[in-house]
Amino acid sequence: EVQLVESGGGLVQPGGSLRLSCVVSGFTFDEYSVSWVRQVPGKGLEWVSGSYWKDYSTHYAESVKGRFTISRDNAENTLYLQMNSLKPEDTAVYYCKARIGAYDYWGQGTQVTVSS
Asked: Is the dihedral of CA 78, 15, 38, 67 positive or negative?
C-alpha cells in the first residue's frame, strides 16, 4: 500500500523558516518523481516544487524560487521541503505527491501558517 505522511508544519512569523518532511512507503522511492503541492482554503491547488526521479533534478514555482529547497533522502524514503523567508502568502496546507504510473498518490497534508 502506497503511503505518504507529511510532518513539520506549524505557525511561524514572517521571515521565519520551516522544514517539511514526507515519509513514503509502499513503493521504491528513488524510482519515482515526487513533488510538493499546496492549497489555500477556498482556492485551487498550487504546485510548489518537484524532484524528478531520473536525474534528481529539482524544479520550483516562481513564487518560491530562491526561498524553498526540495531534497530527498532515498535511503530514508523521505522527501523534504526547506522553506526560508516565509511570507503570509505561503500560508496553506502542504501536500506531498508521488506519480506512480497513471496515478497520483497524496499525503494527508500539513498546515503551514505564516503570521505575526
From this structure: negative
pLDDT digits (tens, 9 = 90+) for 92-104: 999 999 999 899 9
Contact yes or no for 9/16 (Cβ under 8 A): no
User: What pLDDT does 36 receive?
Assistant: 98
Cα–Cα distance list, 113 to 39, 52, 56, 78, 82 (Å): 12, 28, 29, 22, 15
Q: Please name the residues in contact with 95: beta carbons below 8 A apart, sequence gap of 6 or more.
A: 6, 36, 37, 38, 39, 106, 107, 108, 109
Residues 6+ apart with CB under 8 A from 51: 33, 34, 35, 57, 58, 59, 70, 71, 72, 79
Intra-chain end-to-end CA distance of the chain, in Å: 40
Paired residues of 21 in beta bridges: 7, 80
